[in-house]
Amino acid sequence: MITWNVFAGFAVPAVVLWGMGAWMAWRSRPLSSVVLTVVGTMLFAVFIMGLWDSLERPPLRTMGETRLWYSFFMPIAGLLTYARWRYKWVLSFSTLMAAVFIGINLLKPEIHSKALMPALQSPWFAPHVIVYMFAYALLGATVLLALWMLYRGSDLEIEMVDNLVNVGVVFLTIGMLFGAIWAKEAWGHYWSWDPKETWAAITWMLYLLYIHRRYAAPKQIRPVLWLLLFAFLCLQMCWWGINYLPAAQGSSIHTYNIN
Amino acid sequence: MWQKPWTTKEGLTIGAGLVGIGLLLQYTLGPIDWELFAFPINTVVLILVLLAVGVGYALHTQFYWIRFLMTGSAAVASLGYVAFFTLLMGLIPQLADSSSDEELGMTRMLSFWPFVLVYLWMTYIVGLLTIRFLWRLVTGKRYALFTSLSHGGLFLALLCGTLGSADMKRLTLTTKVGQPEWRAQDPKGQVVELPLAIQLHEFRMDEYPMQALLVDNQSGQVVDETADWEIRMVRQLDCAAPMVQDTLQVDYVQWLSVGAASAAYVEAVHQPSGKQVEGWISCGSFAFPYQGLKLDEHYSVVMPEREPKRFVSAVSVYTQSGYTINDTILVNRPLSVEGWKIYQLSYDERLGRWSDLSVFELVRDPWLPAVYVGIGLLLIGVIGLFFSHEKQGGATR
């Protein structure tokens, strides 16, 4: 039976495999790199499926569980980016990010609550959260790129940032609209300006701002890089920050993990 | 400033002007009362906005400022203002009631004039762009398909969602087993008579299995499985009542009646020493107290309140036209009857699973189909953009 007790037994080998894949990318051996990353991801997928089975519900409810998906999608997003553009650094980044979230899950699991409350028992639950986590993973990658470009004073990677943001926004939009349709079924309205919804709107608009700014002033790179960093901060606020935000205390129907 | 071509700077100035006008209106007229927009006013406003967009586009060759609104710079400026005010909304605690007379009005952002004006400005731009992209599409530029779908979908959803909110009705209705009920309450507590009646036959609450948790006697916190005690529930009674035995010990017996509590007989073994403690634990109910089992000076075993798994209301709905609908209403599975959606909202929380009443929310939103069309178009638009990304990226430059 696969439970959180055996998490380290899956996660540590997965991180090692991802790390070896990332190393192979630096050594310019794309085939080994892809194979190692895929095997690591499959190992991680086995854990998620086993946990899904043993919990008898999709593991998407607690913060620890959403981090699990983030760790899962990071290497996939990295692999797709690597396969498409062959950036050597991208797998190192995705491995690092996945490892950080795995580390948090090992040290501070936040996994105690097992029950899935009625409001979350819906076919929309899994796609809504999974699509969002994939978007978060892609947009997380843009942060590292933006920091790198700001540090180096380089503009070369901007096309890659554009691609990642475009795909990230597509998934952000799908996640938000799925959420709206689900909210209509569960809460009676598709948009209630709940703090989580408000922050999702803020995040979405800031990334739309990036896209339109890139179109309006393609030569001015610096400001949009800062915008990306700010947008990702707001994304964190939407993801978990509102649990601690005074303006959202007691008013959000989205805070499932603390009660 | 104001030398053509205008840039984001001019766009930001236009936005500042709108915010200024908004503040003036806020101080003179007070916050926006969305209830005034109820049908037919909202339909008139919708037609006016559509006309303004259509006429605006038709005249764009003659007026520079309309052409400017369709540039990326204007999009950036309006999005910037919209994001800024939404950010304020996210940071300032929002009040539900209208009793507040707080000066700036930003605790009720949805009625705050500057907020609404910058959203209207952005919506107008999105409307103009929708026509532009549609025009490009009909003149043979196929890449404009998904851009026009995404912009058009957003335009429709924003406009109809906002205008339709005045026509949306959200009522709560409390039913008791066996009695038909047709009087609901609106958010202000006014009684509204409905064109339909709901009769509750049964309210049922399914719960997750019982749990036995090890807690620290001092802090009351749940202790990890790493503690040395191994706990087994050897007997579980879903519906039980405590009975005081001759020995003055409390025993739990099967008791199938209102107020029954869940109880379990647990055996706890201290692994290193082999010491064994056994006894009853119970989460209690409104009728009976909770019962824990003390293991030693450090730890106790308790049963947390069982978490609800499902709320089910079996109902009959009678409509004025003479129909009777027999169905069950669950969370995430509302019942649709003659334009109303009926949601499971609440129950008598004091009685828990013994509740003999069920509270429903009834929602009517005549503008919902238009909003859903908008959401659908936006979805198709972004998915299309995803699959045609490279071409699209090249085409917009």
How is this structure best described in words?
The complex is a heterodimer of chains A (259) and B (397). Chain A has 259 residues and is an all-alpha fold. The two termini of chain A are 28 Å apart. By secondary structure, chain B is of the alpha+beta class. Chain B has eight helices and 15 strands. In chain B, helix 1 crosses helix 4, helix 2 packs across helix 5 and helix 2 runs antiparallel to helix 6. The C terminus of chain B is likely disordered. At the A-B interface, helix 6 and helix 7 of A face helix 4, strand 11, helix 7 and helix 8 of B.
The global form of chain A is globular
Helix and strand sequence of chain A: HHHHHHHH
Question: What is the alpha-carbon Rg of chain A in Å?
Answer: 19 Å
Compute the number of helices of chain A.
8
The H/E string of chain B reads HHHHHHEEEEEEEEEEEEEEEHH
Radius of gyration of chain B: 30 Å
**Arithmetic mean of pLDDT of chain B:** 91
The strand count of chain B comes to 15
Averaging pLDDT over every residue of chain A, what do you get? Answer: 89
Largest interface: A-B, 52 and 53 residues
**Main sheet overview of chain B:** 4 strands, antiparallel
Arrangement of strands in the largest sheet of chain B: 1-15-14-13
Structural class of chain B: alpha+beta
Beta percentage of chain A is under 5%
Number of helices of chain B: 8
Find the count of extended strands of chain A (DSSP E, 2+ residues).
0
In this structure, how is the largest beta sheet of chain A organized? none
Shape of chain B: elongated
